[in-house]
Write a structure and sequence with these properties.
Distance between the termini of chain A: 45 Å
Number of domains of chain A: 2
Shape of chain B: globular
Number of strands of chain A: 12
Number of helices of chain A: 12
Number of domains of chain B: 1
Largest sheet of chain B: 5 strands, parallel
Order of helices and strands of chain A: HEHEHEHHEHEHEEEHEEHEHEHH
Radius of gyration of chain B: 17 Å
Structural class of chain B: alpha/beta
CATH topology of chain B: Rossmann fold
CATH topology of the largest domain in chain A: Rossmann fold
Strand order of the largest sheet of chain A: 2-1-3-4-6-5-10
Strand content of chain B: 5-15%
Strand content of chain A: 15-25%
CATH class of chain B: Alpha Beta
CATH architecture of the largest domain in chain A: 3-Layer(aba) Sandwich
Helix content of chain A: 40-55%
Distance between the termini of chain B: 20 Å
Oligomer: heterodimer
CATH superfamily of chain B: Thiamin diphosphate (ThDP)-binding fold, Pyr/PP domains
CATH superfamily of the largest domain in chain A: Thiamin diphosphate (ThDP)-binding fold, Pyr/PP domains
Structural class of chain A: alpha/beta
Largest sheet of chain A: 7 strands, mixed
Number of helices of chain B: 10
Chain lengths: 321, 268
């Protein structure tokens, strides 16, 4: 794969700027590519794209519902379509348009959900993606991708552009300078999870950019004698069938996500355990069922027990029980 | 095609709507299907270049509950047959109250949630322009549907992009589910609203075949076009006209026979 930047550099940009930058490379080999934004082109790092490839860019006004319909008409005619807006506006304001056009009619549109989780910091809960996974998961047939860093996002975008994966919700979390997970390229496979550490005592599933916090916490724990396996679930739907197999070989399970405890990763794993009649100890790192406090991203991660420090402490305690 | 033949087609369409509703023994959306008949007859038999294998002009039914109207015109084009019509509103059928996308038989989109078809049409119109395809996208809206905010979002995009390959057909029958539509949303006021949004806006009697035909000549370049058709909900069946019980109603045998007699009288 063409690789202009090192992964470090991609990650330094943060997922939003990285998206806009990387699409510049993808459009060169995909003349049918169309990007639509509901007045958040700049926030998606698309300024250069807009200027250099005006035919492949469509500025839709602040009308997310309309944008989904327009995108679907284009997809129907064979264009490879990406739309961008903030996570709550795509998943909630336009939710029924997504349900009809992407779910019911199966139009191949990729939703790039900017600034999900609590990455939007001081912009507040109106801009946070607390519930988007729950909502997208409830609509039949929508793939959900939740990359852990910009290197992985690069793989996701490359894959979605060149393969026919069907309608996909891509959930962007993390900010410029977020901790890196993949300093080297790896063999990304849509729908297949990636183990990040080896271990036999505790199994941790993580998704999104908090995976970097988890990786750093667990690496430290493993270096002092713990045995924790960390799995990066970059694709939440379709869910890798081997997830169940992994669960079966552990007694203690942990889930880590920057999403409400309702309907996200914690729900996915808990449902699987219950459905299969398994007896497991499970703890979850999720956002609580409340609107969040406001603050800088780092503050918020710590506030929600999603910082390296808090993850490390809580998993260390869990290992004692 | 001459006027006499088109009149016969309208008769056939109304008969199909009544028969299909009666056969399924369930309540069906009859009134808003009957109001569309002449518009669709002219559109499908005089205006549109239809090709199911290699799509040319396209028709999107945004007012999804008018599906019986669409089915009835597809029947006159011999795109669907009685077997398909007989499956209307039966268990496990894909031919139900609202369209389920099936381009092979001329059903372009799934619908039923109002206010969504125009954005989709805008997307198709943009795609046609990008592909340098000369054909047109027709989208049929209802007047009640124009309360949906997303209609006006799409209306703005269409004018911003000067989508002159997009034609909206608005069936202004004056009624919605709960009854008469407020006067502020009548055909005259709707005309002003669409003009205000920058559309080439045409007003037309929606039951006069000659006038409908002529209205399509008023379509202009460089702007999106809308033809607002003033229609009568339940048109053609006396006891259904302007009687909103037939927005969604069930035909008993007696009512069905009365309706068919009425229809025959009208077209005698």
């Amino acid at each position: 794969m063409h690789n202009q930047f090192e992964n470090q550099q991609w990650c330094r940009m943060g997922p939003r700027a990285m998206f806009g930058q990387f699409m510049l490379e993808l459009v060169k080999n995909n003349k049918n590519l169309m990007i639509l934004s509901a007045d958040l082109g700049r926030s998606s790092g698309l300024d250069r794209f807009k200027n250099e490839f005006p035919k492949n860019y469509l500025s839709i006004g602040i009308s997310e519902q309309n944008m989904i319909g327009v995108a679907s008409g284009l997809a129907r005619e064979g264009f490879k379509v990406f739309v961008t807006s903030f996570a709550p506006f795509l998943s909630m304001r336009a939710s029924e348009q997504v349900r009809m056009n992407l779910g019911y009619m199966r139009h191949n549109v990729n939703l790039i959900a900017l600034g999900s989780g609590v990455t939007m910091g001081y912009l507040g809960n109106s801009h946070y993606g607390l519930e988007d996974l729950a909502i997208m998961r409830a609509i039949p047939g929508i793939n959900i991708s939740s990359p852990s860093d910009c290197a992985e996002l690069k793989n996701v975008l490359h894959d979605l552009t060149n393969k026919n994966r069907g309608p996909t919700y891509v959930r962007l979390t993390g900010i410029p300078g977020s901790r890196i997970v993949y300093s080297k390229d790896y063999n990304y496979k849509f729908g297949k999870f990636e183990p990040l550490t080896k271990g036999r005592k505790i199994l941790v599933f993580s998704t999104g950019s908090v995976t970097s916090e988890a990786l750093s916490a667990i690496t430290e724990l493993n270096s002092v004698g713990h045995s924790i396996k960390l799995i990066n679930l970059h694709t939440l739907r379709p869910l890798d069938k081997n997830v169940l197999k992994e669960i079966k070989s552990f007694d203690k399970i942990v889930t880590i996500e920057e999403h409400s405890i309702i309907g996200g990763l914690n729900t996915i794993i808990s449902d699987l355990i219950i459905k299969n009649n398994l007896k497991k100890k499970i703890i979850s790192f999720s956002l609580s069922d409340k609107f969040s406090a406001n603050g800088k991203y780092d503050f918020l991660l710590d506030f929600h027990n999603l910082s390296r420090k808090k993850i490390k402490r809580k998993i260390a305690n869990f290992s004692k029980n | 095609m001459n006027k006499r033949k088109l009149n016969k087609i309208c008769y056939e369409m109304r008969r199909t709507i009544l028969q299909t509703s009666y056969n399924c023994k369930e309540a069906a959306h009859i009134g808003g299907a009957l109001s569309m008949v002449e518009i669709l007859a002219v559109l499908y038999h005089k205006i549109m270049k239809l090709d199911l294998n290699k799509p040319k002009d396209r028709f999107i039914l945004s007012k999804g509950h008018g599906f019986l109207g669409l089915l009835s015109v597809l029947k006159t084009k011999k795109i669907i047959n009685n077997k398909i019509l007989n499956s209307f509103q039966t268990d496990n059928s894909e031919i139900i109250a609202h369209p389920i996308m099936n381009p092979n038989i001329g059903i372009e989109t799934s619908n039923g949630s109002l206010g969504q078809g125009l954005s989709y049409g805008v997307g198709l119109a943009i795609a046609y322009r990008l592909k340098k395809k000369k054909n047109k996208i027709f989208v049929m809206l209802g007047d009640g549907e124009c309360y949906e905010g997303s209609i006006w979002e799409a209306a703005i995009t269409a004018t911003e992009l000067n989508l002159d390959n997009l034609v909206v057909l608005l069936d202004s029958n004056g009624f919605q589910n709960d009854g008469k539509i407020n006067n502020k949303m009548n055909y005259q006021n709707l005309l002003n609203k669409w003009k205000g949004f920058g559309w080439n806006s045409i007003l037309c009697n929606g039951h006069n075949i000659d006038l409908i035909n002529k209205s399509f000549n008023k379509i202009r370049a460089n702007k999106p076009n809308i033809i607002i058709f003033k229609t009568i909900k339940g048109k053609g069946i006396k006891f259904m006209e302007n009687n909103n019980d037939w927005h969604h109603g069930r035909l008993t045998k007696n009512l069905y026979l009365t309706a068919i007699n009425d229809l025959k009288k009208n077209y005698a």
